[in-house]
Amino acid sequence: MDAIRQYKKSIVENKNLVLFSILLTLLIRFVIFYFSKDITSNDSIGAGYLWDGISSLLLSNKSISFIISTFFVFAISFYASQLNAKHGLIRNRTYLLYVFGSLIFSSHPVFIYMTHYYVSALAFLICIDILFSSYQDKTEARNAYAIGFILGISSLFSFYVLMYLPLFLMGFRMMRIFNFKTFIISLLGITTIYWLSFAFFFWQNNVAGFLNPFEHLYPILNNALESTSFSGESLLTAIALILLIIISLDYQTNSFRDKIRIRANIQFLHLASLFSILTFFFIIYDPTLNLYMLSCSISILLAHFFTLVEQKWKVITFYILILVYFSCCFLNLLK
């Protein structure tokens, strides 16, 4: 028990961990930025209408792109922490959300430059915030429209984020607000964005430009797992899957300690992580997008898991995870 108390005092409840995580994140990102041999800023796959318009103007300079992406990393980490504080996801006080949020988004060269995925990741958290606020809410139609509307705006940056609408429909079910009305209204939120987009493209006499993203919706599925080439992204996703299995099994035995509403929220984050992993391996659309979505949900789950520590094996697992993290960062530098 002394080891657990010491762990909670020095890691979980240590305010200095926030500053330490910021400095460590900056260090890791600078090292990857300057020394990685495999930094690619492939921001054309799945890019939406707005990203196509602004990426060449704002992000042609790699240093500026790096700075903006770093800003988004800290914004996402901060928002995830506010999400926890607002909805009481973690019963105890913790600063681990800042650590996991910022470090996960600095674990691979794919995170180093600013891309449309960062906009979608932040929008994803906003949608989760709205979803958690809608638990048994009588104004579920407004929340359903807001989620559809935000997903629609996000898809103007990263088109394939629309495939996450079914996830939020399942979330409506978990929040006990799902019905035919919420389904239609969420679609209406997306339709609002695309009706306005169509009007703009029609005014520009460029209907073909509007239809271009929709022409790449088929095929949908990968043939099989073997068709997915092994890469650093695949390794991160595989590690996330192992962690998700451990976290999910543990939560099944300890979920009774949470209120029903909190239980539904945590279970949705489990579902969101699993959804991102499955779409990464089996859906042919833009796998990197799924890695960003996964990073959002798994960072909250990891903070939840490693904050509510009552067994020594979890403390050991935490330190093993640190070793695995830095090993992956080192391997990525060698590529």
Task: Provide the low-confidence segments as ranges.
Answer: 224-228
Rg over alpha carbons: 20 Å
By secondary-structure content and strand pairing, the structural class works out as mainly alpha
Annotation field: number of helices: 14
* Share of β-strand residues: under 5%
The total beta strand count reads: 0
Topology as a string of helices (H) and strands (E): HHHHHHHHHHHHHH
Distance between the termini: 42 Å
Helical proportion?
over 70%
Shape: globular
Features:
mainly alpha; 335 residues
Report on the architecture of this protein.
- It contains 14 helices and no strands.
- It is an all-alpha fold and 335 residues long.
- α4 (62-87) runs parallel beside α6, α7 (140-155) packs parallel to α9 and α8 (165-174) packs antiparallel against α12.
- The longest helix has 26 residues, at 62-87.
- The chain is globular, with a radius of gyration of 20 Å.
- Residues 224-228 have low confidence and may be disordered.
Compose a concise summary of this entry.
The chain is mainly α.
List the helices and strands and how they pair.
Elements (H helix, E strand, L loop, with lengths): L1 H11 L3 H20 L13 H10 L3 H26 L8 H9 L11 H18 L6 H16 L9 H10 L5 H24 L3 H5 L20 H23 L5 H23 L4 H21 L4 H23 L1
Helix pairs in contact: 2-5, 4-5, 4-6, 5-13, 6-7, 6-13, 7-9, 8-12, 11-12, 11-13, 12-13
